[in-house]
Design goal:
The chain folds into two domains: about 140 residues, NAD(P)-binding Rossmann-like Domain (Rossmann fold, 3-Layer(aba) Sandwich), CATH 3.40.50; about 180 residues, NAD(P)-binding Rossmann-like Domain (Rossmann fold, 3-Layer(aba) Sandwich), CATH 3.40.50.720. Helices cover about 35% and strands about 15% of the residues. It has a seven-stranded parallel beta sheet with strand order 8-7-6-9-10-11-12, sandwiched between helices. Strands 2-1-3-4-5 form a five-stranded parallel beta sheet, with helices on both faces. One of its GO terms (molecular function) is phosphoglycerate dehydrogenase activity. Keywords: NAD, Oxidoreductase.
Length: about 350
Amino acid sequence: MTFRIGYVGYVPHQNFFDTCAADPGLEVVRVPLEADIGEAVQILSSCHGYYAMASRDELPRHLHVNEALLAKLPHLLMVASTGAGYDTCDPDACTAAGVALVNQAGGNAEGVAEHAVGLMLGCLKRVPEAHAAMKAGQAQDRGALMGRELRGRVVGLVGCGHVGGRVAEIVRAAFGCEVLACDPFVDADTLAARGATKVEMDELLARADVVSLHCPLTPATRGLIGRAQFAAMKKGVVFVTTARGSIHDEDALLEALEAGHVASAGLDVWEVEPPPPSHPLLHHPAVMASQHTAGVTHESRANITKIAALAFGELAAGRMPPRIVNPEVKPRFAERVRAALGTAPA
C-alpha cells in the first residue's frame, strides 16, 4: 500500500523529495498555496500524512491543523511540522482525532544556536546602534558606543532543550560564561550535563546579563515574558529570542528599551511575521532584527526535511515515528494505523 504525503505550496529543502523518492512506499502530492479549502481538502483527504508549514503566517489559516480541518481528513494518520515548532498545529485536536503530531526538534539546533549567540555578541558590542549612527551620519564619537564582551557573563536560558543546550555549550566553552537555565521539563542533573545550572525564573531574571529564549510557543508560554519580567531583569540586560513570537510582549519590550532598562535586544521572531516595516522595534537603534531566519541555513533545512521524510517512512513501514509531540495519542493512533495499513506500529 502506498503511503501518501500531502504538503502545501513548497517544502523547505529538496532533501525531503530526495529522501521520499528513495522509499518506494511513499508518494508525495502537492496542494497549491492558493488552493481554497475545497480543493485542499480534496487533495489531502486521500493522504495518510500531512507535511505542514510550521510558521503560522506562511500557512493559510484554513490549512492549519485544527479540529475543523481534521474532521475533513478521516484518513490522516500523522502530521509533521516543517520545524521544531508546530504553531500551525493543535496537539489536543490531533490527539482527539487519533493523529500523531511530529516535529523536527533538534534538526536545526546548530543553526538556531549559532544565530542566538551571534545576536548576543552583536547586541553586547552595540552593532545595531553603530549601524544606525553610521546611516544617520552621526558616527563621530566611538566612545559613545562602548560595548561589552560576552566572556565571563551570566547567560540565562529560558528553555534548555536541543537549541538551548547547544547555546549553553557554545557560551561556556568559547566564552567561559556561567549558564543558568529555567526549564520545567528538564531535571537539574540533565541541565548540569548540558553545562547549565537549574534555577527558577525569578533567579534567572535577577542574575542574567543576557536572557535568551529557547522554549516552544504553547498556552503556558504565550506572554511568558511581559512587563513584570522585563522589570525583574538586571538593568542593562541584553534580551535575545530565537524561539517564537508571542512568548514575549513586544510593547513591553519597547517600553523597557526606551526606559534604558533593557540595553539591547536581538529579535528573530515576531508576533506577525514578517513584522510591518513601520514596527517600532525595527526602528529602535538598539534592536538587532532578523526575519525568523535563525534556522534558515542550508544545513538545517537539509537536516529537518530528511528527518521528516524518514519519520513518514517509519510509519509507512509499520514502525512508530520518533519525536511525537502528543505521546498520549499512541494507543488510539496505533489502532487507526492498524486499520489503515494492516499493521500497528511498535
